[in-house]
Design brief:
Layout: E1 5-9, E2 13-17, E3 35-36, H1 44-53, H2 70-80, H3 82-87, E4 88-93, H4 94-103, E5 108-109, H5 110-116, E6 120-121, E7 127-128, H6 131-137, H7 144-147, E8 154-155, H8 167-173, E9 181-186, H9 187-196, E10 210-215, E11 219-225, E12 235-239, E13 247-253, H10 257-265, H11 270-277, H12 282-296, E14 310-312, E15 330-332, H13 340-368, E16 375-380, H14 386-396, E17 400-403, H15 408-420, H16 427-434, E18 438-441, H17 448-473
Parallel strand pairs: 1-9, 5-8, 10-16, 16-17
Antiparallel strand pairs: 2-3, 2-4, 6-7, 10-11, 11-13, 12-13, 14-15, 17-18
Helix pairs in contact: 1-2, 9-15, 10-13, 12-13, 13-14, 15-16
Keywords: Kinase, Transferase
Family: Belongs to the FGGY kinase family.
GO molecular function: D-ribulokinase activity
Length: 474
């Protein structure tokens, strides 16, 4: 069996000095702190500054750049740590940093640069860094040495990198020098690759009929189209950033698994529950409790338990489709109760709210031209949560596919590695060959009308938050 390598990682910003050593991005000056995590929101002012320019580049990120992308973070570093900026030799997206460490090649992934660095591939076929944009935002010096600091060799994911594994990396990893290494991809996009080829009987397998949810701390919503579709508040369209030859739109929620954990961990009933359930996961316990509560209340479905409890889930801002990082979470319908039943209800209302967030993104995509989406695919930790997958299906009234392969992100990287090693003629063939099978969670028609009503409340909660902000500004 031949060995190949490919990397995926979060879209975090790595800073190196001119010798290739770690360079601090912290006011502490600690050079071991040389990565700005993707969910680091320090660059809020820089993000607002860039968005006020309304530059044409922003058309390809849903009309507004996100503070989770790299341009605002680079601008923050230049403004707040100018001495560090002057010492910088290169900046990498974390997946590209790993490729560089493995091969010594300074090439960059088209996925990372297009999705997070405002590298342009336009609908008229243009490709490259937009000098005017970088000059306007105050980062024009990055063009020096033909943009070497941020990348001047750009390769599609899965393309072989350099001469493969370097001697030093091979020694550290116990592998052969020259082992093929595929051009990297962002972790969520690797999940999208692993998901989109999953096959299930009687479910359309065309890539453009699927919305892929890659769930973790946050959730990314990936849709691909043969033609570019511009959706306000949804990132993209990005050409060949995930599936070769197709345009990617990327929606998302900044806190999903993290939000569920927060709701559970901050509730007063949680310590006593964990003290009695042993190895059982608390979410399983709460899901079982909800079924018992519904039976006790003579309800046909536990979804009906939250008629008076509603959540707006943007506790860490809204990524899509509103694209407003200043939004806050809201809970309507709290009581003085602090027992495990109150936690179960809040847990359920939060899961429902995250599903309404998916519907909000899907509605925006449909309104912009995604008219053929027929199913959802879900991977990550929340895909193992039956309450979450069923609620997603019920809220969007579409079947949800959960792949048999539990590590879709790793599968996506394996697809790229197999492509780099020429086991398949191209990435698309690898996706279809390695996608595997899955199981279907169908929507329950009995709860569709209920969720339609709650979705109306969900949208009103956003309207009300804006109204409250405006009142306080008067």
């Amino acid at each position: 069996m031949s060995i190949v390598e490919s990397f995926d990682a979060t879209c975090s910003l790595v800073a190196l000095d001119k010798s290739g050593n770690p360079l601090s991005v912290s006011p502490s000056g600690n050079d071991q702190q040389n990565v700005i995590l993707w969910l680091d929101h320090r660059a809020s002012e820089e993000t607002a500054q860039i968005n006020r320019l309304n530059h044409s580049v922003l058309k390809y990120v849903g009309g507004k750049i996100s503070l989770e992308m790299e341009t605002p973070k680079l601008l923050w570093l230049k403004k707040h740590l100018p001495s560090q900026w002057d010492k910088a030799g290169s900046f990498f997206d974390l997946p590209d940093f790993l490729t560089w460490k493995a091969t010594g090649s300074e090439s960059r992934s088209l996925c990372s640069l297009v999705c997070k660095w405002t590298y342009e591939i336009t609908t008229d076929g243009g490709q490259g860094w937009n000098l005017r944009y970088f000059q306007d935002v105050g980062l024009g010096d990055l063009q020096e040495n033909n943009w070497r600091k941020i990348g001047n060799v750009v390769l599609p994911p899965g393309t072989p990198v350099g001469e493969g594994l370097s001697a030093s990396a091979a020694s550290e990893l116990g592998l052969k020098v020259g082992t093929p290494v595929g051009t990297s991809i962002i972790d969520a996009h690797a999940g999208g690759l692993g998901l989109v080829g999953c096959r299930v009987s009687k479910i359309d397998s065309d890539f453009s009929t699927r919305l892929s949810l890659i769930c973790g701390t946050s959730t990314c919503h990936m849709a691909v189209s043969k033609v570019p579709i511009f959706t306000p508040g949804v990132w993209g369209p990005y050409y060949s950033a995930m599936v070769p030859g197709m345009w990617l739109n990327e929606g998302g929620q900044s806190a999903t698994g993290k939000l569920i954990d927060h709701v559970i961990d901050s509730h007063p009933a949680t310590p006593s529950i964990k003290g009695k359930i042993g190895e059982m996961h608390i979410q399983i316990y709460l899901s079982n409790l909800l079924k018992a509560m519904a039976k006790e209340a003579n309800l046909d479905n536990e979804a009906f338990l939250t008629g008076d409890l509603h959540v707006w889930p943007d506790f860490h801002g809204n990524r899509s489709p509103i694209a407003d990082p200043t939004l806050k979470g809201t809970i309507c319908g709290l009581t003085l109760a602090g027992d495990e039943k109150s936690l179960a209800l809040l847990y359920l209302a939060t899961v429902q709210a995250l599903s309404y967030g998916t519907r909000h993104i899907l509605d925006s995509l449909v309104q912009s031209g995604y008219l053929s989406i027929r199913s959802l695919l879900i991977c990550g930790g929340l895909s193992k949560n039956l309450l979450f997958t069923q609620t997603q299906a019920d809220v969007v009234n579409l079947p949800v596919i959960c792949p048999d392969e539990v590590e879709s992100v790793l599968l996506g990287s394996a697809i790229l590695g197999a492509s780099a090693a020429k086991h398949f003629p191209d990435v698309t063939t690898a996706i279809k060959s390695m996608g595997g099978q899955g199981k279907v969670v169908n929507p329950d028609p009995a709860v569709v009308d209920y969720h339609n009503k709650k979705y109306k409340v969900f949208l009103k909660m956003y309207d009300h938050q804006i109204q409250y902000k405006n009142i306080m500004k008067e």
